[in-house]
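Progress against Task 2.4 (sequence-to-structure conversion) is shown through the following example record, which the project officer requested during the mid-term review.
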Amino acid sequence: MKKIYPVIITPTGENDYFVEVPDMDIATQGSSIENSIDMARDAISIMAVDMEEDGKPLPAASDISNVKPTADNSIVTLVDVDIEAYKRMLDNRAVRKNCTIPGWLNEAAEAQHINFSAVLQSALIEKLGINASRRN
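C-alpha cells generated for the chain above:
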C-alpha cells in the first residue's frame, strides 16, 4: 500500500534538520534534506506498521496546501511510503524448510563443506528472477 504524507523539514543547525509528520503526530531528524526525507519515510512506515498491527486505521494524508511551515525557514514537502515493501523488508526472518536430496549428493556436499541454506537461497533467487540487492 503506497501513501504520500506531507512533512515539515526545519533546519536547526549545520547538518541538522527537525522533521515533523503532522498527520501522524510524530517527528524525527536528519543530517541533510535528503536524509531527512529518508528518515521521515522510515518514521511513517514504522508508525504505519505499528498502527496496522494494533488494528488502527492509518490517518488520511492532509492536503499539502493545508500544512503550514512551523518556522520561516521550514520546508513543506511530500514523502512517499510503500508500507507493504517496508513490511517485506522487515520480514527477513529465517524460515526452516525441510527438503530431501539423494544420500550421495548430501555426502558430496558435506565433504565440500557446502552451506545448504546459502545454496538453496541462491538457487531460489536465480530461479525466481529476483534481484537480490532489492528484495523488498
